[in-house]
User: Fold this.
Amino acid sequence: MNAGANLSKSSILYFLHADSYPPKGFDTCIISEIKKQRLAGCFKMRFDSNHWWLALVSWATRFNWKICRGGDQSLFITKALFNEIGGFDQKYTIYEDQILTNQLYKKKQFVVIQHWIITSARLYEKKGVWHLQYHFLMIYLKKWLGASAEEIYTYYKKHI
Assistant:
């Protein structure tokens, strides 16, 4: 992702998972936020599933709370701010989006655009909602307790 950002000639970067679909007019929404000096953010997110837990998780993404952030919501950021914070931490294959988002929250540079991005729930369907949610929570806790990038990646490969 850093390589793509470095090659980009645009002043705005947009990172989107391959199985996520942004709302119609997403580009206009992002430009509007940047004109308001909101230099980074995401959309609220909804899974393409009716599972009650995923619906609850989706509902919570409307709030600008750091705990509710994840790569499935996509990420827009000005190239200048991306370069200023050093981009994605390349040591991390897993959790790199959360690390970057945490930096943006520290700088008070994060907004949640109140339009829905739709994200595939196929990994939850394949692995099981509770199994996957438990292991994502464990990854979050491991990082919070100081686990290295390699430890987090090893845990992810073993359990997810």
